[in-house]
Structures
1.
Amino acid sequence: MHVNIHGSKYKCCECGKCFRGKGNLTRHRRMHSGEKPFECSLCGKRFTEAGSLTVHSRIHSGDKPHKCHLCDKAFNQSVHLNRHMRIHTGDTPYKCSLCDKSFSTSTYLKEHGRRMHSNVRPHSCSYCGKQFATIGDAKCHVRVHTGAKPFSCRHCSECFGRLRQLKTHLLKTHDEGTWLTCHICQKKFSLKKTLIRHIQRHEV
């Protein structure tokens, strides 16, 4: 099966890539054809692979088979659990090539690059013209002008301008959510960013 990768037995006629077996080639060809034979019976969304449909169906069922053994969090995909575990370990495998910063996800690394090492600011405030590297930063800034607090607590009348403020409120005031625990000293935190900074202090 491995040798097939180097031969032409299961070769894509569109791009020339070779595969281990017929099934692998069939799935690959759907990338070129746009065929999505697997359809969700609940929402109609279609997928190229049966496995992708299985993962998607957990959105409707609420099934979260991948559980963290250090806290109460559970996830519908193993990749999300792996990313979550870095909160407990403090692992930051994504290193910035321009400074000594490192991050737990590639998304955070990309945002850091746009904010700190790029002069490109494509998102501007419609009120004052201030420019921002990410659309998320621009949206948060606009609330300074509008006073909007779109994140409301389901238990009381409190409202917040940022989602992380609501999550902290739910934990501290209503005991809703999951505290993040330092695996070294067991101290608890409401925000992932705060926990990571705390763990880094242990390593100094």
Note: The longest helix spans residues 22-33.
2.
Amino acid sequence: MRTSPANSGSAGFTLVEVMTALFVVSIAASAVVLMAPGPDSRLRDAAERLAARLQAAGEASVLANRTIALVVSSEGYRFDRQEERGWRELPNDAALAFRPWPEGVTARIVAPKPDDAAGMRVAEFDPLGGATPLDLQLEDGATAWSVTIGNDGGIDARRAR
């Protein structure tokens, strides 16, 4: 009896083929795990958004030649601009208008002003590019992120220790 060439080989996969398939699946699974949001992604996003808005406020202060202040409360934060007749809240349609804290996130002023300064102007950006130093901590119970403003107007957001 003669066998045909189609029936002469094995009917399964080789070890090399199985190992290659497992390698490809493990790489794909690793990519999914690395791209998944971490447990503090909501808090990190809030800190990074605040840092970006602080940077914009510093630049707006220089461009408008007016002092702009950060106002922090338990509900959220906004920016005020010093005008000839005093401080004025920026309009609701402005990029620097009031923003609420995300649900479950609280803000705590670490330095230089105490916590009882909440609801007041806690940091100011001057038209020359400088700023009032501030360390503001955002917390969600499990983790904390610190957003700092330096004397030179530099902004930094990082996980608090």
Note: The mean pLDDT is 85.
